[in-house]
Automatic annotation (TrEMBL):
Protein name (Swiss-Prot/TrEMBL): NAD(P)-dependent dehydrogenase, short-chain alcohol dehydrogenase family
Pfam family, one: adh_short_C2
Family annotation (SUPFAM superfamilies): NAD(P)-binding Rossmann-fold domains
Gene3D superfamilies cross-referenced by the UniProt entry: NAD(P)-binding Rossmann-like Domain (3.40.50.720)
Family: Belongs to the short-chain dehydrogenases/reductases (SDR) family.
InterPro entries the UniProt entry points to: NAD(P)-bd_dom_sf (IPR036291), SDR_fam (IPR002347)
């Protein structure tokens, strides 16, 4: 039986974060949920630890990591995905908000957690949540998608520099994920849901459990020789 790992998951209060937490918890890992709000409630439901953390604030991250202790696996799940707009209309301030959260926040978390891994000399794993939108544009979502293309680049950057320390860095890139929030916005049978399904060869949105399974795989020993990749979980959407 492998030793339990300490797994830190950002954005843990949301649907994808909770699914990832549940998957690691089922393996017997020591899971720590973080978020700017709601982490305590989510942790109580799942029976995990929690800490409040703002990924855009370096002092917040430092304080949270001191409280958590050594981290073996970092899952950069937190991100801003509700701010959208077409190129000619998206406010510059909104674009900066997207980049500050999705790119700078992911950078800060990776940097500060990896420093601890390097100091301890124990290696580790980082899994970032990206999106197939970083490779396949959708009108009106370019700000978010540009940030996720940057996350893919950050994944490769971190992977090449941290490999010598035994730290692997990968990403999971879902298509639309069937979270409770998305299900409310795209009800089953609605024209909007059908429009998305028609873009996906397997004709289904990604179940949260499938995204979680990909994260667990990339963080685990079965993926010990994989680093710097961004794994699509998209039902084949990138094929069309």
């Amino acid at each position: 039986m492998p030793a339990a790992r300490t797994v830190l998951i950002t954005g843990g209060a949301g649907g994808i974060g909770r699914a990832i937490a549940a998957a690691f918890t089922a393996l017997g890992d020591d899971v720590v949920l973080t978020d700017i709000a709601g982490a305590q409630e989510a942790a109580a439901e799942l029976g995990t630890r929690w800490v409040e953390l703002d990924i855009t604030d370096e002092d917040s991250i430092t304080g949270a990591l001191e409280a958590v202790g050594p981290v073996d696996v970092l899952v950069n799940n937190a991100g801003l995905l509700t701010v959208h707009g077409r190129l000619l209309e998206l406010a510059g301030a909104d674009m900066l908000r997207i980049l500050n959260t999705n790119v700078h926040g992911t950078f800060l978390m990776t940097q500060l957690v990896a420093r601890g891994m390097v100091e301890r000399g124990t290696g580790g794993a980082v899994v970032n949540l990206s999106s197939i939108g970083g490779r396949q544009p959708t009108p009106g979502m370019g700000g978010y998608e540009s940030s996720k293309a940057a996350v893919d680049a950050l994944t490769r950057w971190a992977a090449i520099e941290l490999a010598e320390h035994g730290i692997r860095v990968n990403a999971v890139a879902p298509g639309p994920v069937l979270t409770p929030m998305l299900a409310m916005g795209l009800p089953e049978g609605s024209p909007a849901r059908q429009a998305w399904l028609e873009r996906i060869p397997l004709r289904q949105l990604a179940p949260v459990a499938q995204v979680a399974a990909a994260v667990v795989f990339l963080a685990g020993e079965s993926a010990a020789h994989i680093t710097g990749t961004s794994l699509p979980v998209d039902g084949g959407q990138l094929l069309v």
